[in-house]
Amino acid sequence: MADHTITAANVKISGSNVRTSTIQVGEAVTEGQALYLDSTTSKYMLADATTVAKANVVGISLTSADADGYALMQTSRTYFAGTTLVKGDPVFLSATSGGGDLCPHADLSSSNVVTLIGFASSTSEIELALNPTSIII
After folding, report:
1. pTM above 0.85, yes or no
2. What is the pLDDT of residue 113?
3. φ, ψ for residue 42 (rounded to 5)?
4. CA-to-CA distance for 17 and 38, rounded, in angstroms?
5. Which of 68, 85, 116, 137 could form a disulfide with 120 if both were Cys (CB 3.0 to 4.6 A apart)?
6. How far apart (Å, rounded) are the C-alpha atoms in residues 61 and 22?
7. What is the dihedral of CA 48, 50, 51, 55, to 10 degrees?
8. Do 48 and 98 touch, CB atoms closer than 8 A?
9. pLDDT under 70 in the chain at which residues?
10. C-beta separation of 55 from 91 below 8 A
11. In this predicted structure, what is the pLDDT of residue 1?
């Protein structure tokens, strides 16, 4: 298996009652990437499953931004993921270093930190259920 290939132009909010925040990022981000809050800079960075700190996902970027720019981040409910999913499957944070990428469970391997992003509520949408576990497999 491989990371989900996200088409940034297809990432968007799905439905209502969605929680979003305008955030400052510490590096360039694009739509659909998972983000964590860097405690040193107080800026949002691209998450990955390589360390517990970087795997503490707090949201998904809905807009692109350059380093030190501002982006819109979604923290709850459903969003169009910009990729093809299998309805009902769980979606996890990928270990691709510094990528903010998402992957199926089969992509996780030894030494990865498990972070559940959510579940595919359709073939194109993810219902966010952010759960950074701090469990290393």
Report:
1. yes
2. 94
3. 60, 30
4. 27
5. 85
6. 10
7. 30
8. yes
9. 1
10. no
11. 54
CA nearest to 92, candidates 116, 108, 111: 116
Tokens of 43: 């800026």
Looking up tokens 């990928």, which residue turns up?
Answer: 94
How far apart CA 97 and CA 51 sit, in angstroms, is 10
Q: How many CA atoms lie within 13 A of 51 on its CB side?
A: 7
Alpha-carbon gap, residue 20 to 44, rounded angstroms? 14
- CA quadruple 54, 58, 62, 67: dihedral, nearest 10: -40
Maximum Cα–Cα distance across the chain: 38
- The residue among 30, 8, 93 whose CA lies nearest residue 57 is 93
Please tell me the distance from the alpha carbon of residue 76 to that of residue 14, in angstroms, as a whole number. Answer: 11
Judged by phi (left if over 0) then psi (alpha if -120 to 50, else beta), residue 78 lies in beta
The neighbour count for residue 49, using CB atoms within 10 Å, is 29
CA distances from 59 to 33, 34, 108, 137 (A): 9, 6, 20, 23
